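Newbie here. four chains, one complex. Structure please?
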Amino acid sequence: MIRNTPVTLKFLAEKLKMSVSTVSKALNDYPTINAYTKKRVQEMARELHFTPNKSAINLQERKSRIIGIILPNLLDHFFTRSIYGVEQFATANGYNVIIKQTHDELEKEIQAADMLLKSRVDGLIIAISKNTQDFAHLGQFENLGIPVVYYARNPSFNLSCHKVLGNTFQGCYEASRFLIQRKHRQIAYLGGPKMISFTHDRFNGYIHALRDHDIPFNADLVAYTDFDQQSTIAAIQQLFSNTDYLPTALVAFKESVLFDAIKYLRAVNYAHLRNMEFIGFGNHAFISYLDIPPVASVEEQPEDVGENAVKLLLQLMNKEIDHSEYQKIMVDCRLVVYE
Amino acid sequence: MIRNTPVTLKFLAEKLKMSVSTVSKALNDYPTINAYTKKRVQEMARELHFTPNKSAINLQERKSRIIGIILPNLLDHFFTRSIYGVEQFATANGYNVIIKQTHDELEKEIQAADMLLKSRVDGLIIAISKNTQDFAHLGQFENLGIPVVYYARNPSFNLSCHKVLGNTFQGCYEASRFLIQRKHRQIAYLGGPKMISFTHDRFNGYIHALRDHDIPFNADLVAYTDFDQQSTIAAIQQLFSNTDYLPTALVAFKESVLFDAIKYLRAVNYAHLRNMEFIGFGNHAFISYLDIPPVASVEEQPEDVGENAVKLLLQLMNKEIDHSEYQKIMVDCRLVVYE
DNA sequence: GTAATTATTTCAAACGTTTGAAATGGTGAT
DNA sequence: ATCACCATTTCAAACGTTTGAAATAATTAC
């Protein structure tokens, strides 16, 4: 049976023979409403399955109770896991989340931003796409007083903004130190695209770990990939080109890259591969299925990153933090050692 | 600069010295509005970055333009990919999507359903959690005339409902036939939990393929796992217990299960493993990194499943299909052969 | 030049809620 | 009996749209 008349405050008011405002106030537990009245109203509301109309409330309160989140894609484990934290924390605070994927295309990012703006989200969390240099489409939000939190990816140049990022320097430092403590002296660093700021942060973590343990830096042990298989192979070839100074260990920017590296080495130099040790970023669930697994992984705790982004956003939305006091939150990584 | 007075129809109307309704109708391209007036209004709207207030429209239209989707989790590749289809198609039709995860807990499913009901979603897409037997929390939607589409997971008993499912019978038939055509005669079937209807559908696909190719069925070649590593190992041990009738090929319910199987066999019987051929469901990106990869995979086309679910939901919402004409849409699988 | 017709604009109510101000009813003090 | 003072309830406007009906302006017909 489909009910034809929706259960609204008005409907309840008629049933109870009182005014709409009394019903509203009773349900919102106003102190001026008589206790007995409240009880009657609340019982009737429960009985008739009254559900307040969000659109009406939102209109009245000039809010949408929706948080928008824009990210490159949902196939990448980091983002998927971060969504979990976002979802969880937002839900706990009465907010819904609308997710938009950009596939790292600026065009789609702009489109997504426009759509979320139209949806009048109360706040925006965004992991910018690889080639976002211009921030006009995000400036619109600020103009309307809608707070924006940048997360996961650091806007390249020094944009004044609120950020929640993984402490990728610390993560890479720990990974490198771990390999050093396992007596490696030729540790290679396989970085990501140079445009991404994390590439440099991680490189710095690597460098600092070497320096703190008096290991000379060797530029031959550093190479960069653009994530795709081809450029990863090229980088690995480069790292292994100096045969009398072969790396015995490798820190990779990302596990997907590390997997490609292992795959390539398995094919061309299995013997050496067996004696190497690897660490990547991601703590991917499938690591345990590799025949030659990494010794450890930098767990980036994406759920925490997501949760912190929402937490900050809520504070901004509730004006607990002033809009102009730009926040930068770093979520530490955790080194996970296998076996 | 933060604008204090929001740009509303009223604001535009005052600027243009005309009534609110003229502005509204001009923007909505009513035929009764003068062409020149329309132009003036539209220009002004663009200039002032007018964005219609969704809450107001939704209130007026008694709609939310939100589709809710409830699913077990976002870590499973199938669901993540299906979301992509959902997102895409919903966005293209002007709908936003709110995602809720249940982690296969009925409790959380109920909670999610309640929250979406409160959000007044216009429709619901759900992949029920493993142990959902009671559908009262979903019945609420039907009572309010909000269409529900069940997807990805088939409600166990014969609930009258709209469904969009992968054609898992066909997928498993093709996988089995493929192995048969590669001259295998001892093909094992590793099924999922018996509670899941797909387990039986896939089994039937397997059986039919055997039958159609005159291969005798051997019950020793069938085992079931509960997805966790332990029970997968137990199942594999069972399949390999009859040493004079060892399987030469294996069809696994799911690639995550297949990976566990390969891992175990790599440890205990590497020699035999090398000569075996495997197929699982999922076409997981990680497959190419395995030292002993499956020969093929059943690609379930999750994006299509998601898209079809939204498509059906939209038809129900627009009353293009009567609510009581229960639809069952099967999305065919595609066998992906590697190398 | 007036009436009839058509084109265009405006009015006003509605969607379902919130909330400060005003109204009502009752109690106790004088 | 009158007044002041609470406690409680109701009024009425507002949030920003949409839309059928009514009003007005412009055009055509005669």
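Moderator note: The first helix of chain A runs from residue 9 to 16. Residues 168-299 of chain A form a domain with the Rossmann fold fold (CATH 3.40.50.2300). Thread marked as resolved.
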